[in-house]
């Protein structure tokens, strides 16, 4: 759907420019662009929101921000309000709104996770409101399925010091603003799916930084291994480092 809308916009814009060049109509390219780019912001914002609803990635935070930003710019073009591109900094109170909605959503998920925890043998730290560091680096600590959350702080997991059972074990980290540092021994097969809305990711030889970055990596022996770890990491802001030692 989004692709077709963009295609129609580009075709219409190209046709309008051609008609202007042969004298059929008289438009200002700059004036037309002032209407076009706010609509593009709205389209991409809507797409991110729709992808999030359908569990296909996306981000309701960035999606709603770009959608609102595009609407305000378009309202300015039609003289409903006064709002220029440089006024984007005036939207900073939306950050407070987003954090508030994040708390509401997290409190609902916390109740669900506590119910699940009574039926499953795994570590499930759903204290999203907490701030601070969490470390797993004691000698011979036992690796079990984990679901870890923090509003802010650091996660440090040293699997080289752990006792890892011979099975497939998932670890999920889902937080607002944290730094994640994971040490993996070379003899352990693992797969990592890492996403950060704003920040950087390093996994083996791969590195990405910026906005809405994702890295998927697995060791060459992952598929055939019996003893292996699955890492699912998603941050709104921060850094993710998965290092082999």
UniProtKB/TrEMBL annotation:
Domain LiaF transmembrane: 6-109
Coiled coil segments of this chain: none
Record domain Cell wall-active antibiotics response LiaF-like C-terminal: where: 131-242
UniProt cross-references to Pfam families, sorted A to Z: LiaF-like_C, LiaF-TM
Recorded GO CC terms: membrane
Signal peptide range in chain numbering: none
InterPro entries per record: Cell_wall_LiaF, LiaF-like_C, LiaF_C, LiaF_TM
Keyword annotations of the record: Membrane, Transmembrane, Transmembrane helix
Transmembrane segments: 34-50, 57-75, 91-111
Domain of life the protein comes from: Bacteria
Protein's UniProt keywords contain Hydrolase: no
Descriptive protein name: Lia operon protein LiaF
